[in-house]
Amino acid sequence: MLAPMSLFERVRIGALELPNRIVMAPLGRARAQNESRAPTASVATYYVQRATAGLIVSEATHVSAESVSRPGTSAIHSEEQVEAWRRVTDAVHAAGGRIFQQLFHLGRKADPARLPPGSGSPRAPSAIAARGEFSTAEGPRPFPVPRALRSDEIPGVVADFEHAARNSKRACFDGIEIHGANGFLVDQFLRDGANQRSDHHGGSIENRSRFLLEVVDAAIGVFGAGRVGVRLSPHARGDGTDDSTPQETFGHAAARLSARGIAYLHLIEPAPTPEDQRFAPALRKVFGGPLILCGAFDRTTAERAVREGQADLIAFGAGFIANPDLVERLRRDAPWNTPDPTTFYTGGDRGYIDYPFL
């Protein structure tokens, strides 16, 4: 009989051997330069402080100028951005860490006021506005109705992801994570609440999964399957990115991703999720690679999830924001610093790189 796993045991994900099973979740902190969207020296410090994580997944990083949101969010489509990210990865590697870059496109949730001149409305699978509001300099505004992508435009968006992946590789990331969660473009294609197309990227589950798989295949062509992960969020539906048959949709996607031999599947499924609402058990049956679970885990629930085989690794979000030495705190079962939400997206070093170590 195999011995139960621990958070602090080594694990292999794809091409990488990790010293522990503790993952720093992708956390947008709005600390890049406002105009260039290139990371600053403080961004490098922030990630270096957390380099004891088995794996760092960077903040969600825009793949093109067609994907833009609040000032300070980062991107990886220009030379300046590549060079700045290279300084971050060099620093993380010098500190003994490993870091994947999360790549995403906002789709219908892009800020139309920040799109390149002549772009018009944000683009999406269908002309259906996201539910809710986004932040602007003039205050919150409802998401606009996007323009549905033409069939002949979709390969160009896939190419944007491929270009970004090549830039990630040039910036010396250890791999990339495709952000297929939280109602952004990949997720919009995947779910029938946002995708009501009638071409080969819409309709059936197989067709709605096509964009995700095209993006993943492009990423694999750059990094190899062992350095590509995917993040999914089947429970997230607050912005109207819903699905009528989520178990079937996400099961199909997970099975197709498994067939490609990617490094891992990263599932947002909070620890308190009731048993009868969980996706992880079913996805674990069809996805043969390592599974990362993320959402409201503490030491007890994280250890239990790994020990019982619910997941291979656990990702922590707010825990890493407030505790640069979270791995050591978990190891010692020491108290955690309390995060300050008022500084999550404010820019500057306060609430970013000034949380105390043990």
Summed up:
The protein is an alpha/beta fold. It has helices at 41-49, 79-94, 154-170, 185-190, 205-208, 210-223, 246-259, 280-286, 299-307, 318-322, 326-332; strands at 11-13, 16-18, 22-24, 55-57, 61-62, 99-104, 123-124, 133-134, 141-142, 147-148, 175-179, 228-232, 264-268, 291-294, 313-316.
Describe this structure in words.
- This protein has a single domain, classed as Aldolase class I (TIM Barrel).
- It is globular.
- The protein has helices at residues 41-49, 79-94, 154-170, 185-190, 205-208, 210-223, 246-259, 280-286, 299-307, 318-322, 326-332, and strands spanning 11-13, 16-18, 22-24, 55-57, 61-62, 99-104, 123-124, 133-134, 141-142, 147-148, 175-179, 228-232, 264-268, 291-294, 313-316.
- The protein has 358 residues and is an alpha/beta fold.
- The mean pLDDT is 96.
- Helix 1 packs parallel to helix 2 (79-94) and helix 3 (154-170) runs parallel beside helix 6 (210-223).
